[in-house]
Each structure stands twice: as C-alpha cells, then as structure tokens.
Write a structure and sequence with these properties.
Shape: flat
Largest sheet: none
Number of domains: 2
Order of helices and strands: HHHHHHHHHHHHHHH
CATH superfamily of the largest domain: MetI-like
CATH topology of the largest domain: MetI-like fold
Distance between the termini: 21 Å
Number of helices: 15
C-alpha cells in the first residue's frame, strides 16, 4: 500500500515537470530569429512575400497572442495531435507511430543487454578483486567506455556481418536487425554499470551486516542474493533510469549507420529544415521518457529499500 501511494506521489510530480518542459520548448522555439512562417515557405519551395507570410502565419496561428498559441498547442497535445510536418505535410503523429517503436525497441533492448551483462561482470569482479577475472572485467569496462559508438558499429559490421554473415546490416524487419545496434549502444552502458556494481559490492561487503550474516552461516550465493546485491545494485538502478532517456536521444548515430527508420534521423532532418512541429514533439517525447525513466528507477529503488516509502510518513509524525 505504501509503495502504491509512493508511486502516485511520483506521478503527481511528473505533471508540473512535463508542463514546464512544454512551456520552455514552446518559448525557446518562438525566441529563435527564424520566423516559422518563413521556414514553412522555405521548405515548401515558395517564394516568401509579405502576402504569403501573413497567410501562413494566419494558418499556423502565429498571429495570435503567445499565451493563446501555447494553450491551443496544449489542447492539441491532449488529443494526441502534434501538428503537421512542414516537410512531409502529413501529421507528425503518423510519423511517430512508425518511427517511435523502432527507437523504443532499440533503446530498451540495449538497456536490457547492458543490465544482464553488467550484473555478472560486476559480481565476478568484486568477488575476485585484483585477480585475473577482475582485470579482464576492468579491461572490458575501459574499452567500452573509451571506444566511440560509430567505430564499434563499423567494427561489428565488418567482422560480424561482412566477414561471417551472422546478422543483417540494415533494416528493422526481424529481431536479428536489432542485435548489432543494441550491442553497439549497450557496450558503453556495460562499462558504466559493471564498475558501479563492483564498487557498490566492495563497499557493501565491508558493512557490519555482512559479517553478521557470515556468522549465521550464510553461504556466498545466499549472502550475495539476499543482502549484498540488493543493497549494492541501487546505483545501477539510478543510472539505468537516467540512461533510458539518453538512449532515446542518443540513438541518432547508430540509427544512421544501420539505416534504421527511428526518430533520430527524423529529428535531425527537422532541425536542419526548422520543422517546428517535429522539434516540439521530439522535445516533449524526450521529456516524458526522461521523467518515466526516473519514475521507474524510483519505484525499483523503493522496492529494494522500503524505507524510502516511509520517509514522508515519518516527517508527518514528527
């Protein structure tokens, strides 16, 4: 019950954050020196004249007061109407329905791979501190943190696809198409998570409760599973929640290399042509993803440590 109340409080806190993000995004785009009406005419290959500019400004609602434009845009968002793209002249929502699942699948798969790989590496590295296994895990973490994503992507393409023909190069037709892009994005996360988990485990193993558990006769597996890992994995959970939004926003290079029709290339094209409806929609989606990622991390943290859900109750009692 306390966890349920905790989740509802976090959901309530999301509303002002998202509203603030929409206002900032709407305001910043209106403060740019380029007139959206001129950008629309430029993309449409129409010579901008005073008459055409005024006509487009009226069609886009730019001749209305700022606050009325913002309220109208929020009302459209409530109906999942993200506007019409200046470039393709089709609703942005239709493009997002096609492109967003590709990016979401790629980001979630990368995060899952990173967590599943980093946990065994972190545990092995902590249990065999300064030994051969620890040195190998640290070397892998160093390579993952220092190797650029585009270089890793081309290495995987050359060796895995071209030389051995194990996985396809481009497209999103089957699950095999997501393997190489997911590994490319996951390697850097594996380096971060494994190091965080290793440090957390080493710190937790020095805690008094570990000595007490050993005195009770708990084995290594039971000790790690029931007590130490539950405590040490919390920094990894926090990092994973924050990285979910970064994965959505950072798949641009990988999507371009593997020719995946995600929202990364769609956003780059929108920025280049000043497609304001697409840019505003992308900023809103990224804000929601970041907030949801942090919400999921908070909920998992509360499950791992129930004391977090009791802080508000204790303050009220005091």
């Amino acid at each position: 019950m306390k966890l349920f109340v905790y989740v509802w409080k976090r959901l309530a806190m999301m509303v002002p954050v998202i509203l603030g993000t929409t206002f900032v995004a709407f305001l910043l785009l209106r403060l740019t020196p380029v007139d959206p009406a001129r950008a629309y005419l430029s993309v449409s290959n129409i010579i901008p004249t005073e008459e055409t500019i005024n006509l487009v400004r009226h069609q886009l609602g730019l001749d209305q007061p700022f606050w009325l434009q913002y309220v109208h845009w929020l009302w459209q968002l409530c109906h999942l109407n993200f506007g019409i793209s200046f470039i393709s002249k089709i609703p942005v929502s239709q493009e997002l329905v096609v492109r967003l699942p590709v990016t979401a699948t790629l980001a979630v798969l990368s995060l899952i791979i990173a967590i599943l790989v980093s946990i065994p590496l972190g545990i092995a590295s902590a249990l065999h501190k300064n030994k051969f296994i620890d040195h190998c895990c640290r070397l892998l973490a160093f390579l993952g943190a220092s190797l650029p994503q585009f270089l890793l992507a081309y290495l995987l393409i050359y060796f895995v696809s071209v030389k051995f023909d194990l996985f396809p190069l481009q497209g999103t037709e089957t699950w095999q198409h997501f393997v190489l892009p997911s590994i490319t994005l996951a390697l850097g996360l594996i380096a971060t998570y494994s190091r965080l988990l290793r440090n957390g485990l080493l710190e937790s193993l020095e805690e008094p409760f570990v000595l007490y558990a050993k005195a009770r006769g708990l084995g290594t597996v039971a000790l790690m599973g029931r007590h130490v890992l539950r405590h040490a994995i919390r920094p990894v959970v926090t990092a994973a929640g924050m990285n979910l939004g970064k994965l959505f926003a950072g798949t641009v290079i990988v999507e371009q290399i593997f020719a995946m029709p995600g929202i990364g290339g769609y956003f780059l094209e929108a920025v280049y042509h000043r497609d304001y409806p697409v840019i505003q929609s992308f900023v809103l989606i990224m804000a929601i993803v970041f907030v949801l990622g942090n919400l999921i991390a908070d909920v998992v943290q509360a499950y791992l440590d129930p004391r977090l859900t009791q802080q508000g109750t204790r303050k009220q009692v005091e």
